[in-house]
Design a protein that fits this description.
Layout: H1 3-13, H2 16-19, H3 36-40, E1 69-76, E2 82-93, E3 97-108, E4 111-115, E5 121-125, E6 127-139, E7 144-157, E8 161-174, E9 182-192, E10 195-197, E11 200-202, E12 207-218, E13 222-233, E14 239-248, E15 252-260, E16 265-275, E17 278-287, E18 293-301
Antiparallel strand pairs: 1-2, 1-18, 2-3, 3-6, 4-5, 6-7, 7-8, 8-9, 9-12, 10-11, 12-13, 13-14, 14-15, 15-16, 16-17, 17-18
C-alpha cells in the first residue's frame, strides 16, 4: 500500500472515537439503502468499484466507471414509504482518469390523518425528503482512488414545516491489496450542518464506513464477489454489512447479504440481468416491522 493511502486511512480511522460518541441525528433518508444491487448484497459496498451506486456508499469507487451510465431505483414496502432515485455518471479525463456524477433521491412518507379543533380533517404526507448530490472521483494511481461529494438535504414535514441542510462525503479505495481482486475502502459520509425544523435541530447522521471486498473469476464465465463493511454511526453502536454476488457471463446475477446490529432488518436477497448495456435488478430486504422492502433497479451503460 502506498504512503498516501496509508496516511488517509489512518486519518479516517482517527475519526471513529468522536463519531462513536452517541448523539441524536436526523435525516433518516441519509441512512437508507440506495440501489437494488447494493441492497441485495446487504449494503456491502464500501470496497467495490466501477459502479455508479458507489456514490451513495464510497464515492471513490466510481473513479473507474467504464462508460457513461444512468441508474434509477424505486423502493416500496417499508412503513408504506416510497423511495426513488435517479443518478447519472460521466467518465472524464481531467489530469487522469475520473468520473463526475449527480443524483437526486426522494422519499415520500405515508399519508397521515390530521384532526383539527374545528372538526375538519386532512390527509397529509407525513414527510417528504429530497437529496441532491454532486460528486467527483479520481484515480490518483492505478490502485488508489479518492472521491468527494456535496449534497443538499431538503425536508418537508406534514406539508408545512421545512428543513434545509448541507453536507458532503469523502472516500478512498485501494485496489488489489497484495492480491488481485482484494480491495480496501473507507468513507466518511454525511458530514454537514444541522437538520433543523423551527427551533429544533439534529445533527446529520455522520458515519465512518470501512470495508473489504474480494472478487475472483472462475473459468471464463463465472465471477464471485464477497466482503464486509463495518459502520461507525454517530447515533448508535457499530454495524456490520456482509454480502455476496455471483455473476454468470456478466449477464445473470444472484445476490445475498446479512446486516448485523440493525434494529429491524437482517437478511437480503437479490438478482439481476444485464443485456446490451441495459440492467434490471431486484432486491428483497427482510424487515421485522413495517413491511418488507422491495427495490427495483433500472440502469443503462452507454
Amino acid at each position: 500500500m502506498s504512503k498516501i493511502s496509508t496516511v488517509i486511512l489512518i486519518s479516517l480511522a482517527m475519526l471513529v472515537p468522536p463519531l462513536h460518541t452517541l448523539a441524536l441525528s436526523g435525516g433518516e433518508i441519509l441512512k437508507d439503502s440506495v440501489g437494488a444491487r447494493p441492497s441485495g448484497m446487504g449494503e456491502m459496498y464500501t470496497a467495490l468499484s466501477g459502479d455508479l451506486n458507489t456514490i451513495y456508499y464510497n464515492i471513490a469507487g466510481m473513479a473507474d466507471l467504464p462508460a457513461p451510465e444512468i441508474e434509477s431505483t424505486y423502493t416500496i414496502g417499508l412503513f408504506e414509504n416510497k423511495n426513488a432515485n435517479l443518478t447519472f455518471g460521466l467518465p472524464v479525463e481531467w489530469f487522469g482518469r475520473g468520473t463526475i456524477a449527480a443524483g437526486m433521491l426522494n422519499q415520500a412518507g405515508a399519508k397521515m390523518e390530521i384532526n383539527h379543533l374545528d372538526g375538519s380533517t386532512q390527509n397529509l404526507i407525513s414527510q417528504n425528503d429530497f437529496i441532491w448530490t454532486v460528486g467527483y472521483a479520481h484515480q490518483i494511481t492505478p490502485r488508489l482512488y479518492a472521491g468527494l461529494s456535496m449534497k443538499i438535504y431538503h425536508s418537508i414535514m406534514v406539508e408545512e414545516y421545512t428543513a434545509l441542510a448541507y453536507g458532503g462525503d469523502l472516500g478512498i479505495l485501494y485496489k488489489d491489496l497484495g492480491l488481485p481482486g482484494l480491495n480496501l475502502g473507507a468513507a466518511l459520509r454525511n458530514i454537514g450542518t444541522e437538520i433543523k425544523y423551527l427551533e429544533h435541530g439534529d445533527a446529520m447522521p455522520a458515519t465512518l464506513r470501512i470495508g473489504i471486498a474480494y472478487a475472483r473469476d472462475f473459468a471464463d464465465s463465472h465471477n464471485l464477489k464477497t466482503g464486509g463493511d463495518i459502520l461507525f454511526p454517530n447515533d448508535r453502536n457499530p454495524l456490520g454489512n456482509f454480502g455476496i454476488e455471483y455473476a454468470w457471463e456478466n449477464m445473470l446475477f444472484a445476490r445475498a447479504g446479512y446486516k448485523l446490529g440493525y434494529d429491524i432488518d437482517t437478511f437480503t436477497l437479490g438478482g439481476g440481468i444485464k443485456l446490451y448495456g441495459l440492467r434490471l435488478d431486484y432486491a428483497f430486504s427482510s424487515i421485522e416491522i413495517g413491511g418488507n422492502a422491495h427495490r427495483f433497479g433500472l440502469g443503462y451503460s452507454f
